[in-house]
Amino acid sequence: QVQLVESGGGLVQAGGSLRLSCAASGSIFSIHAMGWYRQAPGKQRDLVARITSGGSTNYADSVKGRFTISRDNAKNTVNLQMNGLKPEDTAVYYCNADRVTSSLGFGDYWGQGTQVTVSS
User: Rounded to an integer, what distance in angstroms lies between the CA atom of residue 84 and that of residue 75?
Assistant: First the structure.
């Protein structure tokens, strides 16, 4: 079984920082890409940032220059450093592992989500 466990959400004032972490566990052989998505109430789930096993990254325009994604391939972990937080960053943040090769075969997996709330 492959599981993603997130940590690091919380409440912060506008302009503050938070760091989200996600660890993938299970009989994992490789993960093509890991990333973070977010979903605000009444809205769809959107990509925030994504990083491949080769280190290529892409970010939502709204977070460029403020958020930084990093990854440890050996540990199957991904982090999201969020600086300069704004109230519009408030959402549930989900970790995603894309094209996971494990003892179960191939699949995409999601974490349970962690709440980030930015007060004005």
Answer: 28
**Among candidate residues 60, 54, 45, the one with its CA nearest the CA of residue 96:** 45
**What 3-state class would DSSP assign to 63?**
helix
pLDDT in tens, 27-76: 999 999 999 999 999 999 999 999 999 999 999 999 999 999 999 999 99
Determine phi and psi for 87, rounding to 5 degrees.
-55, -30
Cα 113 to Cα 120: distance, rounded to the nearest angstrom: 23
Instruction: State whether residue 111 is helix, strand or coil.
Output: coil
For residue 99, the tally of other CB atoms under 10 A from its CB is 13
